[in-house]
Amino acid sequence: MRILKSIMIFYKKLIFPTLIVSILIGLIGVSMSDSFSLKGVGLAYILMSLFFHYFIYEIRNPNEYYFYYNFGLSKIYLWACTLIISLFVGLIMIVL
Amino acid sequence: MNGLHVDSVIKTFGTKLILNDVFMSCKKGEIIGLLGRNGSGKSTLLKIIFGSLTADKKFVKVDGKFVNSLFDSRNLINYLPQDNFLPNHVKINDIISLFCDKNNAELVRANEFIKPLLDKKSKQLSRGERRIAEIYLIVYSDAKYVLIDEPFNGVAPVFRENIKNLIKEQSKNKGFILTDHDYRNILDIATRLIILYDGSTKEIKNKDELIYWGYIPETA
């Protein structure tokens, strides 16, 4: 349960910036193709979540990793979590 | 085999040998003071024991169980790094229940220093306040062994005594390995002292030996 909660805390930090940028990319797409593509937003969400993971945790707050290390979550595990959760969310958007 | 046993730790950075066949042990009830000059490898050793840094060679066992990775060390070894590590978007109150069991969580929440910080996020705290919160979380955590890198860093003297008493009191339930550049704080509470010198650990008995190993000047 603690592991799950700490993964939620970890991923929560990525949701807001990733979603905002993905929607903006979707809106830029509207101006180019005259239609809003949820597929494009979904694809952008997957890619941008990896970018924000790198920016927020590797560049800005690398020491925060130690918080998650104390729950047994390694850096590789956290990268895998970001990828899996984002793929799940992104694919839902693509399928809809 | 009870206790934390660390043996045969070898670590090199490039061609520089930092740790050379290091041996160390810690039992429940012990407070090990790990001393050494800047760059002697204290933090490196703690990170290797914890599992966040890979070593060229290492052997870590906790109460008979091999610890090779971070996943193995969960609930057994917790580590407080030198710099603040709490996520800045979560309230202290929410973090407490992640680190501590129900009884310890209540004790931490009721503490006079922690109480005013409960509804604040880490980013709203000063560096010293964050450090105090981190120390309480790690000391009261469920882990059997706690590694603390410079606990008194950025903490006001009035809180230092409190932290020392806290570590002493909690050493009844777990083992501690501490490092700090202010060796006097370590001497006050350590039940055993170890110095890292030239990549190896040496057990020391008194302050004179700190002079002998070149850790403090003769005038200290």
Fold blueprint:
The complex is a heterodimer of chains A (96) and B (220).
Chain A: H1 2-33, H2 38-60, H3 65-69, H4 75-95
Helix pairs in contact in A: 1-2, 2-4
Chain B: E1 4-13, E2 16-26, E3 31-35, H1 42-50, E4 57-62, E5 65-66, H2 70-73, E6 77-80, H3 92-99, H4 102-110, H5 127-139, E7 145-149, H6 157-170, E8 175-179, H7 183-189, E9 192-197, E10 200-204, H8 207-212
Parallel strand pairs in B: 3-8, 3-9, 6-7, 7-8
Antiparallel strand pairs in B: 1-2, 1-4, 4-5, 9-10
Helix pairs in contact in B: 3-4, 5-6
Question: What does this protein structure show overall?
Answer:
The complex is a heterodimer of chains A (96) and B (220). Chain A is 84% helix and 0% strand. Chain A has 96 residues and is mainly α. Chain A has one domain. The longest helix of chain A has 32 residues, at 2-33. Chain A is elongated and about 50 Å long. Chain B has eight helices and ten strands. In chain B, strand 1 and strand 2 form a beta hairpin. In chain B, 43% of the residues are buried. In chain B, strands 6-7-8-3-9-10 form a six-stranded mixed beta sheet, sandwiched between helices. Chain B has a four-stranded antiparallel beta sheet with strand order 2-1-4-5, covered by helices on one side. Chain B is of the alpha/beta class. In chain B, helix 3 (92-99) packs antiparallel against helix 4 (102-110) and helix 5 (127-139) packs parallel to helix 6 (157-170). The longest helix of chain B has 14 residues, at 157-170. The A-B interface holds A 2-3, 5-6, 9-10, 12-13, 61, 63-67, 69-74, 77 and B 50-52, 69-75, 78-79, 81, 83-90, 98-99, 138, 141, 143.
